[in-house]
Amino acid sequence: TVEAKFDPTTNLALRIKIEDENDDEDDEDTETITDSREILLSDQMTSAGLSDIVADPDVEKYVYAVNDSGYYFEINIETEDVTEIELAGASLSDGTDETDTTTSNYIPTEMVLAQSSAGNKILIPTSTGDIITISPGSTSYSVVTNGSTNVTDTPSFSKIALTPDNDSAYLIDSANDVLWAYSVRSDDFLDQQDSGTSLDPIEIDADTNLDFVDVLVFEDLAGNVVVYVSGTNGITVLNANDPTVEFAIIDALPDTGASDDPIPMSASAGLLAATTSAAGYIFSANSDATISVLSEGPWVTIVLIDPSAVTQTTSTFAITFQTDTAGT
Hints:
The protein has 328 residues and is an all-beta fold. Helix content is 0%, strand content 40%.
């Protein structure tokens, strides 16, 4: 028999299967309990745990995931089957001798599924400055290596953001505090400076902004595409209408004399999020527990904050309103 029961200690609905193996009313029945909201994966994984996950927009039964042990998983949520791929082959240096390397698994730092003009493609940035690309449903992967010699340290990617058409992406390189532009269609990095060398990143003067946390690409109603990069001194804004050409920083404070001022926040800017182009709001979660709200207009209207209490001990919620002119 199969019964359903609610567990009040965990607030989970449980499926309970009771089996009478010998059809003997006097013997003990075997009871199996399964959480109806979870799929057990660990018994099909070499290294259990997931660090990121994306859903397939075309085939609803599939999701794709990675973990920080260097494994990629294709998960069928209907059959609960897992296909595991070990992301092997990363070259690691001991930091003193670039020729003295060991081979290990690539360590994913994030993942996105791009619906580009070249087809659907999963992009997995890594801590070693490589991008792993996998086609949904495939059991093999390709590795795109950033071979630039124009940065001090080997790149290490921490965040990735796709352009609205999904044909390009921008990545934060936390090892060098720069951004890289990447072509999803051709699977290669895009040169961002006319320096005469083959591959340059987007460099932002450390005097204006540094220690980048997150990157967001946003398209307004006029079709203008911009990149928002959060850091210690605020949010730097770049023109991203054409990632194949040299980057251009949009000066947020033209009266200061500097040419690449970020939008100042109440504290160090953190994770970023955005509404639709029609609403036109950008949100920044700042290090002082405030949320900054950016828009093209000078004022932002908050229709509702619900709930009004964020913990059991406080009944206030702070929102920082960012205007386009200081003091107004």
